[in-house]
């Protein structure tokens, strides 16, 4: 799991340092927060479900959605402004994390199946 988080962090860093000037700073921060929350949600859901792929992905998206809605609710209360684009960027971070985790854990599942067949 630590290898996945390391790769995900490197992916986020390399992806957004180059294109940072083309995106609003706020959207990048929302995406990053969603990715971090998604990693936590995916880890918790994976442990609770016995490493079920569906629940791991769902946990990632749900955690990022929860963080995004909470942040926008705070913004609505304090600044009188709910921004669906910010919420979308946060959830996109969670979806990205879920997909990356699914890809990397899928590779390890395939390797484990091959070793069991021999």
Radius of gyration: 16 Å
Oligomer: single chain
Main sheet properties: none
Low-confidence stretches: none
Q: Could you say which structural class the secondary elements and strand pairing correspond to?
A: mainly alpha
Cα shape: globular
The average pLDDT is: 83
Amino-to-carboxy terminus distance: 26 Å
Helix content: over 70%
Description:
The chain is mainly α. The chain has one domain (2-117). It is built from four helices and no strands. The protein is globular and about 50 Å long.
Key traits:
mainly alpha; 4 helices; 118 residues
Concise synopsis of the structure shown:
The protein is built from 4 helices and no strands.
List the helices and strands and how they pair.
Layout (H helix, E strand, L loop, with lengths): L1 H17 L6 H25 L3 H27 L4 H34 L1
Helix pairs in contact: 2-3, 2-4, 3-4
